[in-house]
């Protein structure tokens, strides 16, 4: 990219394209040793380590909840497979905590656990790289104790994604069955130890939702999905090439109503199979008489019983250790335990706030783990009921702010939920239904109230303790993209998509607001803004890449000479355009590649959220082209926001479409908490250590639909497929050792 034009109109601060060094006001020599910003690269021994993740992908995925031999619960969110240790809560004082498998490069869609309870298979969806080239899905088989990848299969074989997985049982888990998401839903059987595909066949053009080996006979495989149950006989060593053959027999519903979907099934100890369907019925499939002479073998099954179990779909069936079966309902949210002859023994109902039952896993003793369609993970039993241990949002996230004095943060998004999270216990403190989409938020410096901007031009101020709305104001009818209190708490600035910044004077610790004025002069929607340390001036960015400066105390006046602001100190730095941060932009950027930026409170580093699923860490100030950075993955969608906690000990990042929330712990060069960034104690994950590779430049344009979170801006790519942690600079950097959390 060449030099970017400066507007010829009288407003000298207007920048029409992404700024470079020549188009931004360069600070004077007295600012942090400028010019040149010669800062020791030794400071860049800082790095991030993913500690807890918030959320569980239950809204649109299955086969996503299991209990390992260690007692850990395994599930996934975005590109991360989480191993959660039950205790007083994830990361809480009762012994709970998380570890993470970070080997995937795109969203994980399904899991399977080996019969040994240690090895895990996880399948990811297809993705695209930064140049828009498709990257193929793959299955990882990995050791859950060491978090070490053992095998990778299917690269170049699967299409679109991996929809379902299952290990064989009767032969000590030697084989893995995979169903992909192609039009034909190809079913393949693998000798996963050798990474060899033994057989592959077209399954059906209808959706396949579940697959499983008969635990008594690995030659029998069952699949179910849209309007079908298929019974497969597999002959190892047969087939045209000697690698085995698959033959299919379709389940016949006969006099029974054919359901639209059969989402789940389970094998009983006597060899029968139970299926749960969209009609709320459990069908019992038994072997026909010729097969009954060979217990556990054969592939001819027919319906022998029908049981009305739920109102609405049955999403999950689970065989318990005592031989009883649990079914989980959709519409009725009921968990029902069934005894011999499918006699109902007891039941419980999941509270409506958590949604329908998505998955069930049996824990220690009588404990049950239940995943729900509203992305919650519940723990309990049928007698005492269930309580949440993991909760999350269910739709795209944009709003994020951190508490000014506590390790707490607040999020909001398209699910219309406003959530306050405790960064110490890693749990939800409270949530509130906004009734409208929340896009931005900011705490008052006192921490007593929080301002939340909505997509209708309306903004609220809420008491953080009582959740009571103390102010309800509407400015225009366009969505609000940023709300920001001045550092002294005397003013509140609201940036709108109507191109204006509304200024309010604030009193009573933020509880009372009165219109002070408007900043009028931007020619596109407001994207970011920051206050000066003295609370008198604002720096703002807009959708057409303007950088404007405003004298608020002087009457919301536009400062036409931008060089007057070159040495001004800013209380926060979240504007993505400016001289101090122009080095975060890679070559070829089209101006929409960076969604969020945040400078640490100690002004040492800058975190950046990009449109390619990555979080970057730069030194601050970052005022030279191709500045060195470290890059971290885990999100499976565009990263919409990043914020440091009040003591810089952690960074919070939000995923867009994947609705994920990650909390990153700041570490020093030796994998220890960095001085001056707070305590970093607590459970951690095993994260890949950054390597020294060159980052390719992103495309100059993204061919995608406009993102609802940034009207007028190009939207994110659907999938991202880069390594989890790597630097994005040719400059040599220290390589901190990977930390191994327990």
Automatic annotation (TrEMBL):
It is found in: Cytoplasm, Cytoskeleton, Spindle; Midbody. GO terms for cellular component: microtubule; midbody; mitotic spindle. Pfam families: Beta-prop_EML, Beta-prop_EML_2, HELP. Its main location: cytoplasm. GO terms for molecular function: microtubule binding. Transmembrane segments: none annotated. One of its GO terms (biological process) is microtubule cytoskeleton organization. Residues 98-380 form the EML-like first beta-propeller domain. Gene3D superfamilies: YVTN repeat-like/Quinoprotein amine dehydrogenase. WD repeats lie at residues 390-422, 519-552, 632-666. Keywords: Cell cycle, Cell division, Coiled coil, Cytoplasm, Cytoskeleton, Microtubule, Mitosis, Repeat, WD repeat. Residues 397-666 form the EML-like second beta-propeller domain. Residues 1-31, 665-742 are annotated as: Disordered. SMART domains: WD40. Residues 9-20 have a biased composition (Basic and acidic residues). Belongs to the WD repeat EMAP family. Regulates mitotic spindle assembly, microtubule (MT)-kinetochore attachment and chromosome separation via recruitment of HAUS augmin-like complex and TUBG1 to the existing MTs and promoting MT-based MT nucleation. Required for proper alignnment of chromosomes during metaphase. This is Echinoderm microtubule-associated protein-like 3. It comes from Sarcophilus harrisii (Tasmanian devil).
């Amino acid at each position: 990219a060449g030099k970017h034009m400066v507007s010829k109109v009288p407003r000298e601060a207007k920048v029409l394209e992404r700024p470079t060094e020549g188009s931004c006001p360069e600070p004077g020599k007295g600012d942090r040793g400028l010019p040149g910003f010669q800062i020791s690269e030794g400071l860049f021994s800082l790095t991030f380590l993913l500690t807890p993740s918030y959320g569980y992908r239950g809204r649109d995925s299955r086969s996503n909840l299991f209990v390992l031999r260690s007692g850990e619960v395994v599930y996934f969110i975005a590109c991360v497979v989480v191993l959660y240790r039950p205790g007083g809560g994830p990361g809480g004082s009762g012994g709970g905590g998380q570890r993470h498998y970070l080997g995937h490069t795109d969203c994980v869609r399904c899991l399977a656990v080996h019969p040994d309870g240690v090895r895990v298979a996880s399948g990811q969806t297809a993705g695209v790289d930064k140049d828009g080239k498709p990257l193929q899905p793959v299955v990882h088989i990995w050791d859950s104790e060491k978090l070490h990848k053992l095998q990778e299969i299917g690269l170049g074989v699967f299409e679109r994604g991996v929809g379902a997985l299952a290990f064989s049982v009767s032969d000590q888990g030697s084989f893995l069955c995979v169903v992909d998401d192609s039009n034909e839903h190809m079913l393949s059987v693998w000798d996963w130890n050798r990474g060899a595909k033994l057989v592959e066949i077209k399954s059906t053009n209808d959706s396949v939702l579940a697959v499983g080996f008969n635990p008594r006979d690995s030659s029998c495989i069952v699949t179910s999905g849209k309007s079908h149950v298929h019974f497969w006989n597999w002959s190892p060593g047969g087939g045209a090439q000697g690698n085995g053959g698959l033959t299919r027999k379709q389940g016949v519903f006969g006099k029974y109503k054919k359901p639209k979907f059969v989402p789940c099934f389970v094998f009983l100890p006597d060899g029968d199979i139970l299926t749960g369907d969209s009609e709320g019925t459990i069908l019992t499939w038994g072997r026909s008489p010729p097969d009954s002479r060979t217990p556990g073998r054969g592939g001819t099954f027919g319906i022998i019983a029908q049981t009305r179990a739920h109102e609405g779909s049955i999403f999950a069936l689970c065989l318990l250790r005592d031989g009883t079966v649990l079914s989980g309902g959709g519409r009725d949210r009921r968990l029902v335990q069934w005894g011999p002859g499918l006699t109902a023994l007891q039941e419980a109902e999941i509270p409506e706030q958590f949604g329908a039952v998505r998955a069930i896993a049996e824990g220690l003793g009588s404990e049950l783990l239940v995943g729900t369609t509203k992305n919650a993970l519940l723990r309990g039993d049928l007698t005492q009921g269930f309580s949440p241990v993991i909760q999350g949002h269910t739709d795209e996230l944009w709003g994020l702010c951190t508490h000014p004095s506590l390790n707490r943060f607040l999020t909001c998004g398209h699910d219309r939920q406003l959530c306050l999270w405790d960064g110490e216990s890693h749990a939800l403190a409270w949530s509130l239904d906004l009734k409208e989409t929340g896009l931005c938020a900011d705490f008052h410096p006192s921490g007593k109230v929080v301002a939340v901007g909505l997509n209708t031009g309306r903004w609220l101020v809420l008491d953080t303790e009582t959740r009571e709305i103390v102010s309800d104001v509407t400015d225009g009818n366009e969505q609000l993209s940023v709300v920001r209190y001045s550092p002294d708490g005397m003013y509140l600035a609201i940036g709108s998509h109507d191109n204006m910044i509304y200024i309010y004077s604030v009193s009573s610790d933020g509880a009372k607001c009165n219109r002070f004025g408007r900043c009028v002069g931007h020619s596109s929607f407001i994207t970011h803004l920051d206050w000066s340390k003295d609370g008198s001036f604002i720096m703002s960015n807009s959708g057409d890449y303007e950088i404007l400066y405003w004298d608020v105390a002087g009457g919301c006046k536009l400062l036409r000479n931008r060089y007057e602001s070159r040495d001004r100190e800013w209380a926060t730095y979240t504007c993505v355009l400016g001289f101090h941060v122009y080095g975060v932009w890679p070559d070829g950027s089209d101006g929409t590649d960076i969604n969020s930026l945040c400078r640490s409170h100690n002004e040492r580093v800058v975190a950046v959220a990009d449109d390619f699923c990555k979080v970057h860490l730069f030194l601050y100030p970052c005022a030279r082209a191709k500045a060195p950075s470290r890059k971290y993955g885990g999100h499976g969608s565009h990263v919409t926001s990043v914020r440091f906690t009040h003591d810089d000990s952690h960074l919070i990042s939000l995923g867009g479409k994947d609705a994920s929330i990650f909390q990153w712990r700041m570490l020093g060069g030796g994998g220890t908490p960095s001085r001056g960034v707070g305590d970093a104690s607590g459970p951690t994950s095993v994260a890949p250590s950054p390597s020294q590779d060159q980052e390719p430049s992103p495309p100059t344009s993204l061919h995608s639909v406009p993102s609802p979170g940034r009207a007028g801006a190009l939207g994110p790519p659907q999938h991202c497929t880069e390594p989890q942690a790597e630097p994005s600079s040719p400059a040599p950097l220290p390589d901190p050792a990977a930390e191994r959390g327990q």
